[in-house]
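## Example record

The block below lists the input lines for one assembly entry, exactly as stored, with component labels intact.
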Amino acid sequence: MSPPRSRDDLLWWAIAGLASFVAILTPLLAHQALRTAAVLVFLLWASGATVVGLVPGLSTTARAALAPGTSVALVLLGASLLLLTDAWHPRVALLVAAVVCCLLSIAAFASHFTYGKLMVRRRSC
Amino acid sequence: MSVAPPGGREPARGGGRAAEVVLPLMVVALVAWALVALGRADEGAIDGYGLLPALPVALFVAVAVAVISFFVLLHRGAPAALLVLHVVAVFLLFDAAPALVSNEPRFPVAWLHTGFVDQIVVHGTVLEDYDARMSWPGFFAAAALAVSASGAENALHLLRWAPFVLHLLYLAPLLLLARALVADRRARWTGVLLFYLGDWVGQTYFGPQGLVYLVFLTVVAVLVSWFRPATLRSSPLVQVLRRIPWREPREQPLPLHGQLALLGLVVVLTLGLVVSHQLTPAALILQSGALLLLGRLRLVTYPVLAALLMGGYVAFGATDYWIGHRAQLVGSGSGEAVAANLGDRVMGSPEHLEILRVRLAVTGLLFSVAAVGVLRQLRERRVSLTLVALGIGTLPIPLLQPYGGEALLRVVLYSLPFAALLAGVAFFGSTYRSRQVAAAATFCLLLAAAFPLARYGNESFERVRTGEVAAIRALYDAAPEGSTFVVMTSNVPWRTERLRGFDYVALADDVDKSDPFAVLDALDELPMPVYVLLTEGQAAWGREVLGLRESWLDDIAEALHQEPDYLRIKNTPEARVFVREERPLPPPSGLVGPRTAG
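Predicted structure tokens for the full assembly:
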């Protein structure tokens, strides 16, 4: 995973991580509309945003263009696999996917600071 | 006259800053006004011309101002965010129109899809041998996942705003495509707006096609943005192609490991398509094949890979489908396909025929202007072979299979983004004059004026009435499992639950519905208990599409009422229900009143 180097990158990972975190909390949300919104934002954007964020060299504009389609493709494929393998546990699947995306976002976000420290050390050497 | 910038934004001209504030604010205010007016519109005004008579003047004013403001800002070189705001305003207004005018979400097919989703939510499986769509369960499984994970009761709440959400999602890959393929900024943005104004095909609803179209756009955007060669690749047509003066924006640079990652992404996207839709992977294979043929694809193995994935899934994952539909899969004669796609569809009432003519005119006009765009590129020696390949790539689809009479519609759908971009090119050449903006704005206003009729002209039989929903809910509550539900035409918001619990029968096309006794004879052959559901939507379908007389459904209702075997258990202006059982029984609880006279 290449470290985020610009403010856009940091913002990208922060939003993707937040959306994934909210998806993890879905069962705790009180209102049905909020639960639906949290799930849809994750399924239609955040999962794909995490994946395209991992592709090296893409601009933020390009990521923004690819994130919804990637998200949808992942959900179509993942949900079909759950069905075809007789493993239909949608809540567990969503939880696992959201946790993975959230952890990846946190790792990418944190690597920005690790990368910054490395650069400072190199310069001081 | 000024030379157009190669793609970047021009600095704002005199007064530009004020215009960039005032015009968007005015558009936002007008959109808000139009949405309020739509909420107050009279649903009952919908007639043979569809939604048009019910639409308030505010909608047309807001759309017109948004289109004019869009072109003023485009002329002044306004930032992309403002142009996006205008494009979104236009499709929001059109998508919100039926959502706010009607009490119930529109389109019976979308309601049926909630039944497929319900099957997965409740049982965790798809039904075998039930419906061809179940063989491509991706969309239904994804929707079931969303419903289950959010704890919702069913998917009905997703129906109303699905068109707007889908159009919103299309915008991002569409902009990427436009940026990759069209150098001129004005042509690019005009093309994007034209896509939304030309999309009357009506696949943006709660269904597989609407969602997988997003994936389709994304795959094509990746292929043309990062896997397009700088020069013509060797292809069987390369000697011919070398004589064409082509020129395209360069692909975006990406390091090798980034390209490999994108390659993996393309495979995942294609797999997502393959498990979710029957036709879209074929369209993608055809378009990528066309790119390859014209030497505009670096990923030479992609069409073969996509074909293998699709073939593999059909062979092993969709056996239920191909065992029963072998003849359709291997195709049909072109005459049959054209008859199913055009001849059989251009029929019905005078109003319906007018709507069909408007649709043909809109499509013909847009694609003709796209052809002018190609000619302009030829004259200016900068033909975009990629756009041409993508615009014509899916033309063979109707020759391969009629797709239930919808293949031509799908060709329009798959070609539309590229035709729209070429149409944008038709207005803006290598030199720039302000009258080009005026011409483009006029053309867009013309399409916007035709849009309500072209897109929502069928609303009399595509809308869902509250009385119809109430009758079907009462049926579900009251009818014993195993009953037969019968309708005259299939545009009914039923099958939203318990798909296997009942036999759902739409009388066959060969039953003469203008003859009530022929209908009674057909009903006699069905196993009891039989619940006959007659709705206003069916009456409208018969009038508008089948060209039946005004009273055709009333005549059937009267004939059923006169039959001693049938008991009328519901009688409202929007729905009537008759039941025939082994022996006369009192009406089931939950349904309205005993048999009434007249």
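The two ends of chain A are 25 Å apart (CA to CA). The longest helix of chain A spans residues 90-124.
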